[in-house]
Amino acid sequence: MLRVEGVVKEFGGLQALSDVSFDVERGEIVGLIGPNGSGKSTLFNVISGFYKPTAGRVIFNGREVQGRNPEEIAAGGLVRTFQLARPFASLTVEENVMLAAPSPGEALARGLFGRSLSWERREDRERAHEVLELVRLWEHRRQLAGSLSYGQSKLLALACALMARPALLLLDEPTAGVNPNLTRIIRDVVERLNIDGMTFLIVEHDMLFVMSLCRRVVVLDHGERIAVGTPQEVQRDPRVVEAYLG
Amino acid sequence: MSDFSQVLANGLIAGSIYALIAVGYTMVYGVLKFINFAHGDVAMAGAYLAFFLMGAGITHGPKLVVVTLVAAAACGLLGVLIERLAYRPLRRASRLTPLITAIGVSIFLEAVVTLIWGAQFRQYPSPSWPLIDVAGARITAAEIAIAVVAIASLVALQWFLTRTPLGANVRAVADNLELATSLGIDVDGAITAVFTVGSFLAGIAGVLIGMEINILPVMGFSLGIKAFAAVVLGGIGSVPGAVLGAYLIGLVENGAAYAVGGVWKEAIAYGLMILVLLVRPAGLLGTPRESEAKL
Amino acid sequence: MIAAISSLAIALGLMIVLSLSLNLAVGHTGLFNLGHAAFYAIGAFTGTLLMVRLGCPWLLALLAGGLLSACFGYLIGLLTLRLSGDYFAIATLGLAVVTSSVLLNWQSLTRGPMGIPGIPRPSIAGVHVAADWQLALLVAAFVAVTWFVIGRLTRSPWGRLLRAIRDDEIAAQALGKRTLTMKTQAVALSAFFTGCAGVIYAGYLQYIDPTIFNINLTIAVLVAVIFGGMGNNAGAVVGATLLTLFQQMMVWFNVPSAVAGTLQQIVYSILLVVMMILRPKGMVSEGVVARAMRETRAEG
Q: Where exactly are the structural domains of chain B?
């Protein structure tokens, strides 16, 4: 479903990514790990269109997407979250989620001429309810997103990403700074959605999380792919051990 | 050929003045990463301060030098005052909020000057400066003085930035604020220095302008935009870039005025700024503002 | 007496429309368009030239003024909205000055500083709106329409997305939203209402020249919008009202117009600086009414 081919990313003189390649098959949960500064977030930015790669290709569902606008890529079914959750602070939790729906009636013509009762579709409101229940935020739906705690805003980000019904979801450190309870919730959500058919590529530092969820893991170090395989294989790989310890 | 020399000379003289203002602009951007739109009005204030001091009939010679230094020093103080009152509370804010504040300060300065001296043109009491013919261009001795003073000031600035410890601090802060802070560098001191020096130079520019044209309170706005155009053209954050950009703006402005008429001078300078912003926001000598860094 | 009230009402109405439309770009979308006065000017000049040179009927001139302004806004948007917020602000500032310059110097079209006199009062379907009080009623109707349309738009999903873009454009892009298109639409709509207001203004003064539409006007409206609270339509109306009253006070106290202008500049600039430092989100916090409206929507 996703193929990353020979991706290189340079900033000025700095090589953040060198010749990174790997695949993500439909229905997989793939982990992306590596020490700090190994280029994981940079890679996410390249895949999702926020960075243009210096060289290499990113192929999603058979189409080349490298260098495309991030909104095009997202609208095409490849959605990513951010390490630091980015909710729309002045909108309510519910509004945040409704906004993420695939076709939320945001056209100008709709606003001008459409009947205001038909602005939001019933099925979207129902899905928003489902999604918010899933992440335990339904009671907070009227709260302004800016007033949520850190953990709650990460859940909200997850909810929005789900609402967008992506084919492939890139999660950037979904459990960073989140308490173990919420981590478990997030893990369960990911598993349930994967059973329903969603594909995941997850950047994580929490090894337990990665080991228990991911079928395969890709390891980066200093911008290079140094290992790929099952969590067990990767754990035993001497290069990986050295990267984390050395 | 003499038309060409004249335009060239006019362009270089205008460029010299713009350069003095542009370097202050670019230094503030370098350390604080925001556009100090009030800077042009500081120069305008300098022009009016000199006008006020000249009320005693001082026109040239050593007394003119004194007037210039006093006006420039006052501008330096003004710049620091503005920084303390209007910009320092906004250190943490996005780039946009301090820009709006700067626009407010700019208008405030213009209004105060208008209240005191009125909205009509004012003129320095000046003698008739001797006209000199240089390679077909007719320049007054005053204009030569302008160019000389401007260049001397720029050289002094370069010396300050590269040869003094305070200047080194300024460059460090401009390069990487977090690193400088963690190294224990006096960031506030560097910022104060930037505003003092930048505004001082702007004050000098103001006096030089007054020697060249009749002054108006609204000229601060126009100077601000042209200096900003110079800064963007040369590469925002780069002092040599600002100087280069300033001379380019001066030349293009005068060249275009010659071609299509002086009435379009302002529009052309502003148009150039917009063009640079759209086509190459990094300018000639700058590195692109990594918008990707927002992530 | 009636004349004084009428002229106050007209000034107030036009300022409200200017504020509501600027609020759409600045308040709801976070775009500091410092060229707002240019939209006013283009609408005014378009309508004027159509009526005076071509004898165009008023309603048509009104729409043409609004539409041409909107096109101008759209073009400016396409050019400058890729720039980050502060560069965008300065670019629009520059464009406003360029527009001013063009209007001033293209004398064959606009008669430059001499201006265009003899602009007729509006005439709709045979009814000649000649008296000031009649014009005041027309302005009131215009304000009502503007309030209704902008209110509707800002309550719609379209408006919600604008506010999301204001909060975090990158997050919006990550959800697949075409943010550049949205921002351009906001600016174009803002320009449309302002352009229409320009035509009405020209019909009221019955004379225009380019110097009327300057940066000070934009700053005044900006102050009203920021004071009223970014994205708060009712607040924008409050801001516009206070501003108009302030301007009128100077007329009532017989302050000479040159001094009045400078006094306004001082007040606006101080307000601007203070507001930015203390409460960049505005003075009038989102009213009880607005919050209640939101909760009813979420319910239904």
A: 14-217
- Is the pLDDT at C148 greater than 90? The verdict is yes
Average pLDDT over residues A6-33: 88
Minimal CA–CA distance to B138: which of B6, B37, B44, B42?
B6
C230 pLDDT exceeds 60? yes
CB-nearest to B295 from A11, A12, A45 is A45
Q: Is A79 helix (H, G, I), strand (E, B) or coil?
A: strand
By C-alpha distance, the chain C residue nearest B120 is C258
Task: Return the SS3 of C55.
Answer: coil
Which of B222-236, C28-42, C186-200 is predicted with the least confidence, judged by mean pLDDT?
Answer: B222-236
C-beta of residue C21 within 8 angstroms of C-beta of residue C233: no
Chain A residues within 8 A of C176 when measuring between CB atoms = 71-72, 74-76, 79, 102, 164
CB A217 within 8 A of CB A210: yes
The CATH fold assigned to A2-245 is Rossmann fold (3.40.50)
Tell me what percent of the residues of chain C surpass a pLDDT of 70: 93
pLDDT at C192 over 90: yes
Q: In this model, does residue C296 exceed pLDDT 50? A: no
Mean pLDDT per 10-residue run, chain B (295 residues)? 80 92 91 90 94 69 79 94 92 82 94 90 72 71 83 88 86 82 84 93 92 88 89 86 92 87 82 83 64 47
The pLDDT, as a whole number, for residue A238 is 86
- Residues of chain B positioned with their CB less than 8 A from the CB of C25: none
Closest residue on chain B to A70 (Cα): B292
Tokens 């560097």 belong to residue? B190
Give the domain ranges of chain C.
2-214
How far away is chain C from the Cα of B96, in angstroms, using its nearest Cα? 5
Q: In this complex, which of B103, B273, B291 lies closest to C84 when CB atoms are compared?
A: B291
Cβ–Cβ contact B97 with C under 8 A: yes
Question: What's at B241, amino acid-wise?
Answer: G
Q: Searching chain C, which residue's CA lies closest to the CA of residue A95? A: C160
Mean pLDDT value of segment C201-208:
91
Distance of CA C200 to the CA centre of its chain: 12
pLDDT at C295 over 80: no
Integer-rounded Cα Rg, in Å, for chain B is 19
> Which residue is associated with the tokens 């919730």?
A185
Residue C298 has pLDDT above 50, yes or no: no
| Cross-chain residue pair B95–C265, CB shorter than 8 Å | no
Model confidence at C39, in pLDDT bands (50, 70, 90)? very high
Q: Per the confidence metrics, is the pTM higher than 0.90?
A: no
CA distance A126 to B265: 61
Of C105, C266, C273, the CB nearest to B263: C105
Q: Please, which chains are in contact with C (at least 3 CB pairs closer than 8 A)? A: A, B
What is chain C's mean pLDDT, rounded?
87
**How far apart are the C-alpha atoms of C294 and C288, rounded to whole Å?**
10
Q: How far is C122 from chain B (nearest CA, A)?
A: 34
DSSP state of C254: T
Q: Shortest CA distance to A48 belongs to which of A74, A17, A75, A85?
A: A74
How does B245-278 read in b/e, with b if 16+ C-beta sit within 10 Å? bbbbbbbbbbbbbbeeeeebbbbbbbbbbbebbe
Facing B277 at nearest CB: one of C87, C105, C268 = C87
Interface membership of B147 toward C (CB under 8 Å): no
Decide: helix, strand or coil at residue B153.
Answer: helix
Within 8 A of C93 by CB-CB distance, chain B residues are 225
Q: Which of A50, A71, A80 sits opposite C177 (nearest CB)?
A: A71
- Tell me the torsion sign for CA atoms C162, C166, C168, C169: positive
Q: Percent of chain A, pLDDT > 90?
A: 21
Question: How far C231 CA sits from the closest chain A CA (Å)?
Answer: 10
Strand segments (E) across B173-251 = none
- The Cβ of residue A136 has, within 10 Å, a number of other Cβ atoms equal to 15
